[in-house]
User: What shape does this take?
Amino acid sequence: MSNAVKVQFLNSGKVLKGNLPFSEAVKVGNMLYLSGQIGIVPETQRIAPGGIESESHQVMKNIKAVLEAHGYAMVDLVKCTVFLADMTEWSAFNEIYKGYLTEGRLPARSALGVNGLALGARVEVECIACK
Assistant: This one.
């Protein structure tokens, strides 16, 4: 009898279209590791216009879509890492971020300032979920 944990490389196509060199999520046992999400609007495959606020809403919607596509929910998030192109936008991001989470079930989180994100995004968030 093997004790090996099953690993699944997952792509639902709900957010990103096309043949990209990564999986949108990897499931290992009951853990789901999401690739970083930026504010891509699924229908246009372009960054949501309007700056940090609209991009932040789209990032969180994309995270929710990927989680749900694989049988998870926002309440299953246990860790998020936030990458911001401009750390002065940290407060604006936080206001939007907390609106997508349940009080008392906030995931552990780190936030970093970076000098560039894919497609000129203002924010990218990668997450880990567990259920």
About this structure: The longest helix spans residues 52-69. Strands lie at 7-10, 25-28, 31-34, 37-38, 40-41, 46-47, 77-84, 108-113, 123-130. The chain is about 20% helix and 30% strand.
